[in-house]
């Protein structure tokens, strides 16, 4: 992953849904935008529905101050469209809940609510996020822990290569611990690319 404090250019999805890019999140300048996303009903699984603006600021200031947790604002064709967090599961979120392996990286992502959804956009965002995480050669496996009832994200995760392992109890939720190795992600990505090329080449 890019080091905190740097700006990433395009990270994926050019030619499909548009250009996606990442930059380090500014906990003060971006707080109002994040607050509008996190308190939206579609972000219920982030458990910040009733958060005040100052609480969002404090949350992301704490992340900015941590050496084990980083937040990034994602843009679609230059406009803010999603947020991504990466964390070290040895110190954040999953301490004592599983045995981390070398190269494990935890991840959260949220796509901004919209009244005009673009088909395939959320999967394109997740693919770009995974591309970015695996761009770091030290990353061998991505770890996620979504709420067990969030079936939509389970399906999305599995589509890009995540394999559910087991349910775990976190203080705030019961979660589905899932893993995606570099090999699994690249295999799924290759299959998706081949499928898309085949569909484009098919005779109507």
From TrEMBL:
| SUPFAM superfamilies tied to this protein | Acyl-CoA N-acyltransferases (Nat) (SSF55729)
| Residue ranges of every copy of the N-acetyltransferase domain listed in the record | 20-183
- Which GO biological process entries does UniProt record here? response to antibiotic; siderophore biosynthetic process
A Pfam match: Acetyltransf_8
Sorted alphabetically, which keywords does the UniProt record give? Antibiotic resistance
- From the Swiss-Prot or TrEMBL record, what is one GO molecular function term? N-acyltransferase activity
Q: Which domain of life is it from?
A: Bacteria
Metabolic or biological pathway, per its Swiss-Prot or TrEMBL entry: Siderophore biosynthesis; mycobactin biosynthesis
InterPro entries to which the protein is assigned, alphabetical: Acyl_CoA_acyltransferase, Acyltransferase_MbtK/IucB-like, GNAT_dom
Return the SMART domains for the record: AlcB (SM01006)
According to its UniProt entry, the function of this protein is described as: Acyltransferase required for the direct transfer of medium- to long-chain fatty acyl moieties from a carrier protein (MbtL) on to the epsilon-amino group of lysine residue in the mycobactin core.
Provide the protein name.
Lysine N-acyltransferase MbtK
* UniProt organism field: Streptomyces aurantiacus
């Amino acid at each position: 992953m890019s080091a905190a404090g740097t700006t990433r250019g395009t990270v994926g999805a050019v030619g499909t849904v548009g250009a996606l890019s990442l930059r380090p999140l500014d906990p003060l300048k971006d707080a109002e935008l994040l607050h509008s996303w996190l308190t939206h009903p579609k972000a219920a699984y982030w458990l910040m529905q009733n958060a005040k603006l100052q609480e969002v600021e404090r949350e992301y200031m704490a992340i900015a101050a941590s050496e084990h947790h980083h937040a990034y604002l994602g843009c679609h064709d230059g406009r803010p469209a999603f947020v991504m967090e990466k964390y070290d599961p040895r110190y954040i979120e999953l301490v004592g809940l599983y045995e981390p392996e070398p190269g494990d990286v935890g991840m959260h992502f949220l796509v901004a609510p919209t009244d005009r959804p673009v088909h395939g956009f959320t999967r394109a965002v997740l693919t770009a996020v995974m591309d970015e995480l695996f761009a770091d050669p030290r990353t061998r496996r991505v770890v996620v822990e979504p709420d067990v009832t969030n079936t939509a994200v389970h399906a999305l995760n599995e589509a890009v290569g995540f394999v559910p392992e087991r349910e775990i109890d976190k203080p705030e939720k019961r979660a589905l611990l899932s893993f995606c190795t570099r090999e699994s992600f690249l295999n799924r990505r290759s299959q998706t690319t081949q499928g898309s090329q085949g569909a484009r080449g098919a005779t109507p």
